[in-house]
TrEMBL record:
Pfam families: DUF1194. This is Uncharacterized protein DUF1194. Keywords: Signal. PROSITE patterns: PROKAR_LIPOPROTEIN.
Length: 232
């Protein structure tokens, strides 16, 4: 999977900035919640590829340059989810100010032991938990929920029902549909039912094998969204 040239141009053109170690909350440029599906449709290999793929994307030099060059810090948190009763934090909120911070966040992902293994897929409850995580994080100029899954919501409230209770807001919900290139109807379901907010999009992979490259491209697109919009 090749990154669009415009993303590569921005990724290589950024200049690293030096931020204070204790940045005020209102100086946060972007908050990202990673929501990883660990329901029973995923076997152990797929689960490992998902966690290792996200960690590899965060360790990528182009991604790190972009994360550390926004003029104000980016804040990250991650959790795993499956059925309506299972959402578990993988990494608490962290303002990433240095490469060491990003490495520490990535290490929390790779060191995590999986839970929620035998449960079904509760996408609506996962979105509810993600919004709650945003409220516990720093106040940032932009807020993004980055949800990945390989199946339809089949237990608990639907994404539509969850969103119907929310007032309009500026939160962007993006999706990575694992296997969506082979399942276009599933991909379309995420586009019509899950993504939401300014500039929202749903990307798809062939399988878990190309997850790392897909999440890398997705991260660059999310962090660089304002610059990409200005370039059009």
């Amino acid at each position: 999977m090749n990154l669009p040239r415009v993303i590569l141009a921005f990724a290589t053109a950024v200049v690293l900035g030096c931020m204070p170690s204790q940045a005020p909350a209102d100086e946060c440029s972007l908050a990202v919640v990673f929501a990883l599906d660990v329901s029973k449709s995923m076997d152990s290999t797929e689960h490992s590829l998902q966690l290792l793929g996200l960690a590899a994307a965060l360790r990528d030099p182009a991604v790190q340059d972009v994360l550390l060059s926004q003029g104000a810090p980016v804040a990250l948190t991650a959790f795993e989810w499956s059925g309506p009763g299972y959402q578990a934090n993988l990494a608490d909120w962290m303002l990433v100010l240095t490469g060491r911070d990003i490495e520490a966040f990535a290490a929390r992902l790779t060191d995590h032991a999986r839970g929620g293994r035998s449960q079904r897929t509760g996408t609506g409850p996962a979105l509810s938990f993600a919004y709650a995580r945003l409220k516990l994080g720093p106040a940032c100029l932009r807020e993004v929920i980055d949800i990945s899954s390989d199946g339809y919501s089949n237990e608990g409230q639907s994404p539509h029902d969850f969103y119907s209770r929310l007032p309009p807001d500026a939160v962007t919900v993006n999706a990575l549909v694992v296997g969506g290139k082979r399942r276009p109807v599933l991909w379309e379901w995420f586009r019509s039912q899950v993504i939401r907010g300014p500039g929202a999009f749903a990307m798809a992979t062939e399988s878990f094998d190309d997850y790392a490259e897909a999440i890398r491209e997705k991260l660059l697109r999310e962090v660089l969204a304002p610059q990409l919009a200005e370039s059009k």
